[in-house]
Specification:
CATH topology: Rossmann fold
CATH class: Alpha Beta
Helix content: 25-40%
CATH architecture: 3-Layer(aba) Sandwich
Largest sheet: 8 strands, mixed
Strand order of the largest sheet: 2-1-3-4-14-13-12-9
Order of helices and strands: EHEHEHHEHEEEEEEEEEEH
Strand content: 25-35%
Distance between the termini: 12 Å
Number of helices: 6
Length: 205
């Protein structure tokens, strides 16, 4: 069972349907107790960092996510969900994140001609990981974001993407904690495969 964290922000039903499409049972819930019983958690998200982290904290679901990581339950953040895993963000002010990964979320520089970064782009596999199982070469995924992560620890980065001269982490992994800057649920075959891989990681826990 995969639990999708409902803190009021994100493509919740689309993520749920994507897991169902790969034969994995998934639920959308804002109940911390129910989420704690799941084999793996998904932290989705769209929109601004400040709104996201405020929604998590006001609902108490920030503690649910942190406890899950501490209990070695597999957790994956998607798009804004990945960014929330880091220490903080410069989006519309300065905001403190969950601090589960070292680094910060910053805006694309002025040299980037078009922001947000929207559409299909490839992920260069920095190092092999179970999340990439069954995906050949540098797979393509669907991105929508104006800010990107700068990771403190290179070892936390397993995939990178280049956009208009800027290379940024697009897939992160540290122990039982994972994240993707793109939207797997909108990325057709490659995205479904990555969600299936995460479900397998969770089932093997």
């Amino acid at each position: 069972m995969i639990g999708i964290v409902n803190y009021g922000i994100g493509n919740l039903r689309s993520v749920e349907k994507a897991f169902h499409a790969v034969g994995t049972e998934a639920i959308v819930s804002s109940d911390g107790g129910r989420l704690a019983e799941c084999d793996g958690l998904v932290l989705p998200g769209v929109g601004a960092f400040g709104d996201g982290i405020d929604g998590l904290r006001s609902s108490g679901l920030d503690r649910t996510v942190v406890r899950a990581v501490e209990d070695e339950t597999p957790v994956i953040g998607l798009c804004l969900g990945l960014q929330l895993l880091f220490e903080g963000s410069d989006e519309f002010g300065s905001h403190r994140g969950l601090g589960l990964l070292g680094g910060r979320v910053v805006k694309f520089p002025e040299t980037v001609r078009v922001v947000p970064h929207t559409g299909w782009n490839s992920v260069h596999v920095v190092r092999q990981h179970l999340l990439f199982s069954g995906l050949d070469g540098d797979p393509f995924f669907y991105f929508v974001h104006s800010f990107h992560v700068v990771a403190d620890d290179r070892d936390d980065v397993v995939g990178e993407t280049e956009y208009d001269g800027v290379v940024f982490p697009s897939v992160c992994a540290k122990g039982n904690l994972f994240g993707a800057q793109f939207h797997p649920e909108k990325s057709h075959t490659a995205g479904l495969k990555m969600l299936e891989n995460f479900a397998r990681i969770a089932a093997a826990r």
